[in-house]
Amino acid sequence: MRTVARKIAEWINRLGSVWVEGQVTQLSARPGTGTAFITLRDPSAEVSLSLTCPMGVLRSVDPPLTDGARVVVHGKPSVYLARGSLSLRVDEIRAVGIGELLARIERLRRLLAAEGLFSSARKRRPPFLPNRVGLITGRGSAAEHDVLTNASARWPAVRFRVENVAVQGAQAVPGILGALRALDADPEVDVIVLARGGGSVEDLLPFSDEALCRAVAACGTPVVSAIGHEPDTPLVDHVADVRCSTPTAAGRHLVPDVTEETRKVLVLRDRARRALHGWVDRERRLLDSVRTRPALADPHQWLAYRGQEVATLRERGLRAVVTELNTEETGLRSVRSRLTTLGPAATLARGYAVVQHVDEDGTPRVLTSVTDAQPGTRLRVRVADGAVRAVVSDQTPRGDRR
């Protein structure tokens, strides 16, 4: 084990000097000692590093270092073999000034804007009446009181899930990130509020942290930012779905005003009542108008009228059929009379006869020439009232009148 620790220490010693930026979370400088011990923490992650610093270097920092200060230190990493711990031996400390902090925030602002995290197209509108409101704020803070009081005054039935975290200092960003994840995972929470009172630029630095801004952008629940006062605009204000100038404004924005909504309901009910009454009156007048029409005033009259029309048409149809039958019957009698006059029976009745001779096969044929009736030919003579049979005894040619 000692060999491993020694090998690690030798490898770290070859790294050379480095610059490290962080936030001072613990400062130990006992009088009479030549070395100060500092714990430097990453503002965005649960990572810390121990520093050892000569007292002369610590006293040269202006303004004097305090817990929560942002600094950049230069030193050489080393491993303490007795404990196996890593530390940084510092030879220079620089306090991060306001101007440099603002410049870094501005660079981060441009980066996030270029990635589209400030775009209004990705922002969502919180629900009109959320089921439960998630609130991330400092414990017992004025911001918590303002949000709860104003929201409850507007809608007494509003429900909150409050997550109290540090809103400044080294623990602020990790605490806010944890609370944000917990509220986003709660299915009853419909909107999340980040609330903090005003403060200096250093106090509001956690709300311009890159990790927090990206977490707010990735949150599945709409986020309302209520940080500081009107002039305070940390980066999370631009990333959040809704930005309120103060926690008081956030409390008023979260839920509707029950008095105003009640008034709107009453107005709408009154309008609906008037509209319904107007519709009923209009339909009643229309029904009365329809009832006064002759077809509905005396329905039997129209039935009798139509019945008379049907009877008249029926009588006209019957007369037309009878007339047509009479005409056809007269024509039929005329044709029958003509056929009777022109028929063979009428001719026979006038004294004519039809003479037929019988062929050898027994078939009777009309005799049309004397040449077909040789003496001895059997004949059948048909007259009006019957037929007689005769035998040809002689022929008389045409022109012989004897």
UniProtKB/TrEMBL annotation:
Residues 4-94 form the OB-fold nucleic acid binding domain. Residues 117-327 form the Exonuclease VII large subunit C-terminal domain. Keywords: Cytoplasm, Exonuclease, Hydrolase, Nuclease. It is found in: Cytoplasm. It catalyses: Exonucleolytic cleavage in either 5'- to 3'- or 3'- to 5'-direction to yield nucleoside 5'-phosphates. Pfam families: Exonuc_VII_L, tRNA_anti_2. Its EC number is 3.1.11.6. It comes from the Bacteria. The keyword Glycoprotein does not apply. CDD domains: ExoVII_LU_OBF. InterPro entries: Exonuc_VII_L (IPR003753), Exonuc_VII_lsu_C (IPR020579), OB-fold_nuc-bd_dom (IPR025824). Belongs to the XseA family. PANTHER family: EXODEOXYRIBONUCLEASE 7 LARGE SUBUNIT. Heterooligomer composed of large and small subunits. Bidirectionally degrades single-stranded DNA into large acid-insoluble oligonucleotides, which are then degraded further into small acid-soluble oligonucleotides. This is Exodeoxyribonuclease 7 large subunit.
